[in-house]
Amino acid sequence: MKNILITGALGQIGSELITFLGKRYGKEKVIASDIKSMPEGMINQIGIFEYIDCLDAQEIYSVIKKYRIDTIFHLAAVLSSAGEKNPQLAWKVNINGLYNVLEIAREYKCAVFTPSSIAAFGPSTPKDNTPQETIQRPNTIYGLTKVTGELLCDYYYSKYGVDTRGVRFPGIISYAALPGGGTTDYAVEIFYDALKYKKYTCFLDKNTSLDMMYMPDGLKAAVNLMEADPSRLKHRNAYNVTAESFNPGQLSGEIKKYIPDFEMNYDVDPMRQAIADSWPNRLDDTAAREDWGWFPDYDLKAMTKDMIEKLKVKLQVSV
Ligand code: AKB
Fold first, then answer.
1. Using an 8 Å Cβ cutoff, are 118 and 80 in contact?
2. Element (H, E) at 164
3. Are residue 188 and residue 222 in the same domain, yes or no?
4. Predicted pLDDT at 4
5. What number of other Cβ atoms are within 10 A of residue 230's Cβ?
6. Are 37 and 166 in a shared domain?
7. Which of 85, 117, 144, 282 to mutate to test the pocket of ligand 1 (most atoms within 8 A of CB)?
8. Do both 146 and 179 map to the same domain?
9. Where in this chain does the record put each NAD-dependent epimerase/dehydratase domain (predicted)?
10. Which of 18, 61, 69, 107 has the maximal Cβ count within 10 Å?
């Protein structure tokens, strides 16, 4: 990785990946791009910023040529809950955007990281210890785009030799930027509301278990996979990865250890509950561990402690 382009760089993962890659490869080697304009507060954090709408192939081309990009972290996407509200847009952004990136990667010989998701599985997938290779019949448009994306990336690898790699991300928990439009977003919102108001109303049922991961592990997974020796990779798109699996009741219990008067209420949103119910409880990530040494550093306990410490500073609250 010499010159790196991040698409969707102002999103939840992108805004932290910029700094992570900048520290590792040099700030001037990381080109952040998005359809949103860069917030003033991020000027010091971002080395170079370019406007790119991934639906416009020319915009991607000109940045690839200008900076001699050899690696693309393609993060621009519409997530699960937002996708159900506008399936046409989700298909367009997630598929046409990816297609544009892959075509350019083919021509300019770029490596491509594209995140897949636990959403690439569906109701007929085994829910516990979900295998690396198993039934993938999702029933959300986001899930459909993730399965299609996995297959498309594998196709570009086998047909054209494009170095495509990906992981199936669980819900990502972080304090720097808010997620947007996902079903796992409750696991971030809860921390903000717990610290600000000492109460949170959860849109998922108390017992809904889902795979989750703290951002430092998510960044490590993406970058370690891209740095892995290609001869060791038995899979390309995409590897199961997980760090922790918990439900809203368990997360609330962990937060109460720090904020004893925290109150958790439930007002289940049928759409997001149906999405969550169609996803696995916990993935089996043995293949990632064996092929490229994946292991997470944070479990529920360690993640909660760090989230509360970091958010207390960010929100300037004491509990
Ligand atoms: C979502 O909830 O849509 C995402 C995901 C699991 O891919 N966080």
1. no
2. strand 164-165
3. no
4. 98
5. 11
6. yes
7. 117
8. no
9. 4-241
10. 18
How far is the centre of ligand 1, averaged over its atoms, from the C-alpha of 275 (Å)?
10
79 within ligand 1 shell (Cβ under 6 A): yes
217: CB partners within 8 A, 6+ apart: 243, 296, 297, 298
User: How many residues are present in the chain?
Assistant: 319
| Residues whose CB is less than 8 angstroms from the CB of residue 147 and which lie 6 or more positions away in sequence, other chains included | 120, 136, 138
Beta carbon of 119 within 6 Å of any ligand 1 atom = yes
What is the identity of the amino acid at 295? Answer: F
**Whole-prediction pTM value?**
0.97
Tally of domains in the chain: 2
Spatial distance between the Cα atoms of 289 and 221, rounded to a whole number of angstroms:
10
Distance of CA 139 to the CA centre of its chain: 19
Is the N-terminal amide bond of 77 cis, ω within 30° of 0?
A: no
| DSSP-derived secondary structure letter, 4 | E
Task: Indicate whether 165 and 175 sit together in one domain.
Answer: no
CA distance 101 to 65: 13
Q: Cα of 135 to ligand 1 centre, how many Å?
A: 19
Q: Which of 51, 61, 108, 142 is catalytic?
A: 142
Pairing state between β 244-246 and 210-214 = antiparallel
- 142 catalytic? Reply is yes
Q: Which residues contact 245 (CB under 8 A, 6 or more apart)?
A: 209, 210, 211, 212, 281, 282
Give residue for tokens 């991040």: 6
In terms of residue numbers, what domain contains 102? Answer: 4-170+215-240
pLDDT at 47: 83
Q: Is the model's pLDDT at 178 over the cut of 80?
A: yes
3-class secondary structure, 194: helix
Residue nearest to atom 7 of ligand 1 (CA): 117
For the chain, the average pLDDT equals: 97
Atom from ligand 1 closest to the CA of residue 81: 3
